[in-house]
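Hey, I was hoping to borrow your eyes for a little while. No rush at all, and the record is pasted right below:
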Amino acid sequence: MTMLQAITFDLDDTLWDNHGVMARTEEGHYRWLLEALETWRGVRQEKALALSHEGGGLDYLQRRQQLAKEVPERRGDFTWLRLRALEAQLEDAGLHRSAALMWASAAMNEFHRLRVQVTPHPEAAGLLAALAERYQLAAITNGNIHLKRQPLAGYFPVAIAAGELLAPKPDPTPFLTALSRLNVAPESAMHVGDSWQEDVLPAQQLGMHVVWISEAEDQPLPPRVHRIAHIKELPSVLEKLERHHSGGVYSH
C-alpha cells in the first residue's frame, strides 16, 4: 500500500472562480491599450489608429485563434498567442514595428496585472497551509496567470504552466513534470481540479488519485476518482483515504 505524499492543484475554477476575472482582464487590458495609444499618439500629434474597442477586440480574438491553428504547438501558450496577435494587429494598423512590439508588451503587462487579481475561495489559504504540513504541494494550470504573483503562490513551491511547456492538459507532460520535481510516483499523488477532460482523465490514467470538483452527481466515476462540490470538502476525502489506507484498501 502506498501512502499519499503529494497533492497537485488546478487553479482556475478550483481554488477561485475565474469567469469574472477573465472577463475583466480581457476587456480591461485592451481598453487600456487603446486609451494609452490614443494619448501617446496625441502627444506626438499623430492621427489616431483606426482601432475600436469592439472591432479591434474581435480582430484580436480572431488573430489569436488563427495563430493557434497555424502554430498548433503553441495553442496552449496563451501569453505567446496574445503577444504575437497584438504585435501583428498594431503593425497592420500603422505602427512602426518597434512601436508595435513596445505597446504589445505593455498591454500584456497590464493583462497580467489584471489577471492576478483573483479572489481565492475563503477556505483556500487555510486549507493549503494545513495540507502543506503533511503533503508536498504543486500547481498545474493551463491558464496564463503569473504563477509567482497569484495570491496563493506561496503554497506552491512547484508550479507548472502547461502552455509554456507546449503541452497543455490533458497532455500528461505537465503532470509528469510536477511529479518529477516533487520526486513522487503517480500512485503516491493526488490531483485536484474541475475539468473532467483536462484534470480527471489524464491524472487518473497516470495512476494518480483524483478529486473532481463538480456539482454533477449522476456520472459514474472510475477508480481512484472522488467527486466534491467545493474545495472545502477536500479534507473529508483525504480522511477517508487515510482510513482506507490504514485498513489496507487505500488503492480504492
